[in-house]
Amino acid sequence: MRYAAPCVDDLVERELTTKEYAKEILEATKRGEVLPDSELQFDLAYLMCEYVAKKLGKNEIDTEVIRVYYLLLHNNLLKIHKPVTCSIEECEVKVVSEIDGINASFLKEINKPNLVVHRGYVVDLLTNEELEGILSKYMYLATH
Asked: How far is it, in rounded angstroms, from Cα 139 to Cα 92?
């Protein structure tokens, strides 16, 4: 749900859920929990994750399937179905910390695109190995 939850405002805007339920989804996600069947609210993403799982020979949607969908397919589908504000982005980390009572801002170098941001929310941080694995799955999907 870390990847999907930032889109709850779209569900409310399209009158697919209530503001109250959207808030419950976000709060549960912040706690690391998933409300029963809440993933079904994100119908297109859910169907695409099922498709990716099947193409990868999996019987369930797991972390790898979610990452493959969101990092490699999500933005292309948005060009057709949703506003650009919902895109998954790569970025650097801006760290603000206090040093001797003074706030200091600096960019922490993380090998891009390891930090994954969806609608302004950091949803994942990938190692280079994890990212390479996802890209290899994409190559598999593209050729099978």
From this structure: 26
Q: What local confidence, expressed as pLDDT, does residue 82 receive?
A: 58
Residue 90 lies in a domain: no
Domain assignment of residue 53, yes or no: yes
Whether residue 80 lies inside any domain: the answer is: yes
Quick one: tokens of 20? 């109250």
CA angle 105, 110, 115 (to 5 degrees): 95
User: Domain range spanning residue 67?
Assistant: 5-84+128-143
For residue 51, being part of any structural domain is answered with: yes
**Residues found in the chain:** 144
Peptide bond into 83 cis (omega under 30): no
Structural domain tally of the chain?
1
Pairwise pLDDT comparison (86 vs 34), residue with the higher score: 34
pLDDT digits (tens, 9 = 90+) for 46-87: 999 999 999 999 999 999 999 888 888 877 777 666 554 566
Give the model's pLDDT for residue 121.
Answer: 74
How many CA atoms lie within 13 Å of 123's alpha carbon, on the beta-carbon side?
A: 25
